[in-house]
Write a structure and sequence with these properties.
2 copies of one chain form a homodimer. By secondary structure, the first copy, chain A, is α+β, with helices and mostly antiparallel strands. Chain A has helices spanning 18-29, 52-64; strands spanning 2-11, 33-38, 41-48, 70-78.
Chain lengths: 80, 80
């Protein structure tokens, strides 16, 4: 069966996100009252699988994220 | 009023996404039947604003995306 998968990988709470800090500062300099800007890493793909949750969790641990510094979440929807 | 904003910036349809191609290939080499992997750019932040949609649209045009090559979408939710 075919699935549409969206994975979001975030730095764990408290870890420094320099890219987010710079972009947040640039937006404030443009006059927007932005706070706490973070730049998570996103992945969107289609997956042919009989056990999609298990496979996506494996992909995150093996390749898409670093369990030491990242947390992740995913959305898995059937492709019609 | 305070809002929680999530912006997703994607390369327009048909444009080359080399990072996505490499990651998709790596996942297939690990044995996953992954197809069409893309790596959109995501931004998550809080915004203090009386006209959040207008401001977020401006931010995308001015800084977060390049209208020539990107499309974008955003989700804006009130912070309780």
């Amino acid at each position: 069966m075919k699935w549409r998968v969206t994975v979001t990988v975030r730095l764990k709470e408290g870890l420094n996100d320099p890219e987010g800090r710079v972009i947040g500062k640039a937006l404030r300099n443009l006059g927007y009252a932005v706070d706490g800007l973070r730049v998570p890493k996103c992945f969107e793909f289609e997956l042919e699988s009989e056990r999609p949750e298990e496979e996506v969790e494996e992909m995150c641990r093996k390749l898409l994220a670093n369990p030491l510094i990242h947390s992740w979440e995913y959305r898995i929807e059937p492709v019609s």
